[in-house]
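Please, structure for the following, as tokens.
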Amino acid sequence: MSDSAENKYGDENKHGAGKESVAPADAPAAVEPLALTLSGEARQAVDILAERYGGVGPAEALRRALGLAAFLVEEAARGSVVVIERRDGERHRLVLPE
């Protein structure tokens, strides 16, 4: 993956699970607040992600998750295929919107 895609969607891990996320180069300078109402299930998912991302807050967990989702959707639009390979060798193709 190119450095520009790497910086556009997160840290060097390409999915935001390590260092702080890097804003896309083409992002507006100002940060726009966004208020969300989440179901209990969605909030629980955010909390789980926050814990797995090293104890970050919910806003950072959402930023990282959105960065990952944006990267995957963009790659699918380019014709890339995402395959999940489990420890036992079983493979599953991840179907994404294009």
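Residues 37 and 69 are 20 Å apart (CA to CA). Confidence is low (pLDDT under 50) at residues 1-7, 9-21.
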